[in-house]
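Lecture 7, part 2: worked example. A protein chain together with protoporphyrin IX containing FE.
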Amino acid sequence: MPYERTLDLNSDAFRGEAYRHYAALRQASPVFLSQPDGQLPMWYVTGAREVEEVLLDSERFARDPSRIDPQFAAMLGGEQSIAFLNDHMLNRDGESHRRLRRLVNKAFTLKAVTAMRPRIEQIAESLLDAVGPSGRMDVVSQYAFPLSITVIAELLGVPAQDRDDFRRWSHMIVRQVGHDLSELQRCYNEFAGYMLALIDRRRAYPTDDLVSALAQVEEEGRMLSRSELCSMIALLIIAGHETSASMIGNAVHTLVQHPDALVRLRDEPALMPDAVEEFLRYDSSVERAMVRFVTRDTELAGQHLRRGQFVVAVVGSANRDEVMCANPDRLDITRPACPHMSFGKGTHYCLGASLARQELDIALNTLLRRCPGLRLAVDPSAVRWRYVPNFRGPDALPVCWSVG
Ligand code: HEM
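Predicted complex, written out as structure tokens:
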């Protein structure tokens, strides 16, 4: 076996060449136990079949740690303000998960999302109006992030002018490590405090948005507790922009690295829906699903997993498994739809998949139409990446284009 158990799959060295390492892991051990010095053991699942098995079987692989035992859950839980951010559907299983998901499903149907198209196009156009004449921008901070955060903020009814605060809070929460604990705690307190004040305002003066609708459900004592409501909004903000913004960044990065595909897509925008699926498959912004907890001793691809152990399904690796499609390491924007797992599988399948696809479609179409000769403005080796535990995406992506 080429990899030792002490392999750290979160090191920059690993993440910097993740797809190459995952290919080797899939060959050698598609279910791999990693235990770097001083860390808890973690099973990494890299084979497509095994990833699918984990995500579809919430009986054996739970998201809710209290199904192991209350002490285990308490160990992972923590302060009150964390409860106000963590009490959401992605941390639940079974009926408890369905109950929360039903409350927001309607806002994210294909029909509801299609109705948002003109507004998303307007946001993309106005962001490019601002930078167009200069012929250069950082795709992440000047396009992908403001686009995604504005869309989800408007849908929820959260003031978009506070987006820099959301970005700061959200970045800290998804990164977790690398901040001192008091800094992290302050961030949790600020985020939860902001949400609770917003909920109270929307309850007193409802507007036509999702927070007001959900605040009504809570007030009437029908189904939603205060911590569930606060956590739901926090989840939608974080899941609704971190992933989409990074995905736009990944897709533009892929395109500028594949100039033939870029020119073809600019000249044949009808290819965009298939291309969007290919960008999602080729370099997903969600590299790994959220950790699962083993509910009983079990076997997976010949490995023995014990109750209470942690399991990470690596969807980014599954997407590059040859059992999914031919030549998985090759970008092919005309590929007939390949069943990628970038939006997960099973009960926690991404709530915002239609919205994310539409944002990506609009962001790329608008960029290619408005920015002729789009290319990287720096040497490819200078692009900095942001490897937070589950996500991948460029930290910044400077591009330029021809003006006049
Ligand atoms: C390209 C962008 C996106 C990607 C790649 C993505 C990916 C994913 C994945 C893989 C999961 C499942 C996680 C797991 O099983 O551990 C998930 C769940 C989720 N996503 Fe997304 N997502 C994206 C955009 C969005 C957007 C725009 C929203 C909007 C609100 C959103 C909201 C959610 C929610 C609420 C869940 C939890 C669903 C549940 O627990 O039932 N996502 N997403």
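The mean pLDDT is 91. The pocket of protoporphyrin IX containing FE is lined by residues 55, 89-90, 101, 152, 235-236, 239-240, 243-244, 247, 284-286, 289-290, 315, 342-344, 348, 350-352, 355-356 (CB under 6 Å). Keep this in mind for problem set question 3.
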